[in-house]
Design goal:
- With 500 residues, the protein is α/β, with parallel strands linked by helices.
- Helix content is 30%, strand content 15%.
- Helix 9 crosses helix 13.
Length: 500
């Protein structure tokens, strides 16, 4: 097989969009793209959970109960290899709703003021569905009268026709989003099924501490509340007689809102749950380990609706029989709020390659959002100052980062043993480098062009700093409390032992 640099531009573009894989039919998919003669056009429903990793009971997590999502998985196909294109909402959602990498359309910086216009090479998925006769709608959780989250990194009028599929014309197919923010901070506990913090499993890169355990349990309890609301949406489909004619996609926009996860390209920030139920078209209760990127969801939804695939999309219609299997996915992190950065990763089934374009920056560089909302952020700082972190936990506290990181995902799923300097893995490292270099060049990664620093300054001065000052004032805290002082506040709020 030739190296990526030996391919011509069209071949590389095709490989980047389709995953550079060999043609393979997924045995879980029981029909081709085109609908059978006489079959009605299916509805498409996206149920989107904010900040959710595959931390569900159907994915093997014993610490919580998610029976409604489990039931959806039993009726459809559950993907174990789905990944967001970015570890933060506005960037990954810009990719979701265009079917193009956010880095290719100038939508990669999280929070830009003022926002620009949608890149001329991109079109919204809602426009494509509307042209095919679909009604498009977007609901905020279980409130069918209120518009749901879009949070795109470009300015446009409301891209949806309404908030509820019941607002459509009789017999009209619909493309709907239902957005849930339960697993986004701030966490609100589940009064119906509390989770014992002493029993939850904590990743080894976080300190095993009462504050960590309570915060982690709160996240899982939020997932349980989310599960009940997902169940209500599915029951609504049943009540309207739409379950058999609707393709349901359930997924997270990006990974969980914890310190080393959201805003970073470790799997905690980009690995997402993805379940697809398509009655009569996918095998119920099946599991696929195929790699799926966030940009694939637009392509798969259009294909399921029988809409001709438009040129220029970066995704692949992974539900279509004969679709090419991805060999790797690419994810990108750029500025998040006021915190400037540029990180890219390439991930296949076996290895993760991360490139830190600014290795002089620390992992824990200042970020008001994480300082304000993540108790473990302050806990790490305090325990680091006291020399009480384990070697694995200390790695995230380093003053600088390596320019490259490489992880063996099968042997090291927590991504703690960096193999970038290993002679034994030199060939893997070079292959991953070439994959990323080709992707950057051939998808037109806007991260190659530095952002005007005045943009980030405006974001900080006009939005984030005033908001942060107001929140901290309401909490009775200074804008930048020392970690020990802040942890006393967190201990009281979380109801844990104040002895920290």
């Amino acid at each position: 097989m030739p190296g990526l640099r030996d391919w011509n531009r069209r071949e590389v573009l095709t490989a980047c969009a389709a995953g550079a894989g060999l043609l393979a039919v997924d045995p879980r998919i029981t029909s081709a793209l085109h609908l059978a003669d006489g079959a009605s056009t299916p509805n498409i429903l996206w149920i989107i959970a904010e900040d959710l990793s595959p931390d569900l009971s159907c994915y093997g997590n014993p610490d919580l109960s998610t029976p409604n999502i489990d039931r959806l998985a039993a009726e459809g196909v559950r993907y174990t290899g789905a990944f967001a294109t970015a570890p933060v909402c506005s960037a990954c959602r810009s990719a979701l709703l265009t079917g193009m990498y956010q880095t290719s359309i100038g939508a990669h910086q999280h929070r830009t003021a003022p926002k620009g216009t949608l890149d001329s090479n991109a079109r919204l998925l809602t426009d494509r569905f509307r042209e095919a006769g679909y009604f498009t709608c977007n609901a905020a959780g279980d409130d069918w009268s209120r518009a749901g989250k879009t949070d795109l990194n470009f300015t446009l009028d409301d891209p949806f026709d309404g908030t509820d599929w019941r607002q459509r014309e009789s017999g009209q197919p619909f493309f709907a989003q239902v957005n849930f923010n339960e697993t986004h901070r701030a966490f609100v506990r589940d009064p119906e099924r509390p989770i014992d913090p002493d029993l939850v499993q904590i990743p080894p890169f976080y300190p095993d501490h009462p504050i960590t355990r309570r915060d982690w349990a709160d996240y899982l309890e939020c997932a349980q509340v989310l599960d009940r609301k997902v169940g209500a949406v599915l029951r609504r489909l049943d009540e309207d007689g739409l379950a058999e004619s609707t393709v349901v996609f359930f997924f997270g926009d990006h990974g969980r809102a914890h310190v080393r996860d959201k805003q970073f390209l470790y799997d905690g920030g980009i690995h997402i749950p993805l379940i697809v139920r398509w009655p009569g078209r996918v095998d119920p209760g099946s599991v696929s380990d195929s790699l799926v990127s966030g940009v694939d969801l637009a392509a798969a939804s259009l294909a399921a609706a029988g809409i001709t695939m438009p040129p220029g999309l970066h995704g692949r219609p992974f539900l279509e029989a004969g679709s090419r299997e991805r060999v790797f996915i690419v994810s990108a992190r750029d500025r998040c709020d006021e915190t400037y950065d540029r990180i890219r990763c390439v991930r296949d089934h076996d290895f993760k390659y991360i490139r830190n374009y600014f290795p002089n920056l620390s992992y824990m560089q200042a970020n008001l959002y994480k300082l304000r909302e993540y108790p473990v952020w302050s806990l790490l700082q305090m325990l680091h100052a006291e020399g009480r972190l384990t070697p694995d936990q200390e790695k995230f506290m380093a003053a600088t980062r390596p320019a490259e990181e490489l992880y063996d995902l099968r042997a090291d799923p927590d991504e703690l043993v960096d193999l970038a300097g290993s002679a034994e893995h030199r060939e893997v490292l070079e292959e991953m480098r070439q994959r990323l270099d080709s992707w950057v060049e051939n998808t037109g990664d806007w991260g190659e062009n530095p952002e005007d620093p005045r943009v980030a300054a405006r974001v900080y001065l006009d939005r984030h700093r005033p908001f942060h000052l107001g929140v901290m004032r309401d909490r009775g805290l200074p804008p930048h409390p020392n970690p020990t002082e802040f942890l006393r506040w967190w201990a009281q709020k979380l109801g844990v032992d104040p002895i920290i």
